[in-house]
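Hi Y.,

Following your request, here is the sequence exactly as I used it, all 209 residues.
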Amino acid sequence: MFGKKKQKDEAGPEDEAAPAVEGEGEAAPAKKKLSGKALVLFVILPAILVLGAGGGAAFLLLGQGGGEQHAEAETGGHAKAKAKGGHGAGPPGEPVPGPSGTTITQGEDVIFVALPEMLVNIVGHDGRPAYLKLRLTLEAPDQAAVTALTEHIPRVSDQFNGFLREMRTDDLAGSAGAYRLRLELLRRVNLVIAPAQVNAVLIEEMLVQ
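Below is the corresponding structure, written out as tokens. Let me know if you'd prefer a different format.
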């Protein structure tokens, strides 16, 4: 009996201590959970809010900056397009006066330069003098060619007149005669304005009297 009571007395303190240890074990995780929640509420959440506000402000600033850059790009594009036309260039299809009596018309990817009307003496069938009236338009690929052309109009006219005076009325007969005339005039104008070049010589009017 004394042995059993002793065992019971010895086991008693251990059994009584066990619940205390278990209670402490449960309190520790609860404390850890509470600390984690406090960390989220008081540290992480404010940081997220601050970052979110900063990101929104940055987005607004960048958006406004992008709008200004876009506006500047559009303005620069219009300025370049306007500069490309150069002096004397108007809206597409609208003729405007150019230097040296020329008329400049902006076409689609080309520029047309109408030369002053030409009246030249040539040789007729029976050897008598005849008159050739020409209205020519030159097709230029860009403004650089137009500038070179209008700066050399006197030389171009001199080349054309010298060539046309040597012609006979028979040389101008039919479509073949007109085709050869365009080729010869194109070759001469490109020699004058080289290295710039024009694409073609267009005969607007050709009258032999």
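The mean pLDDT is 73.

Thanks again,
Q.
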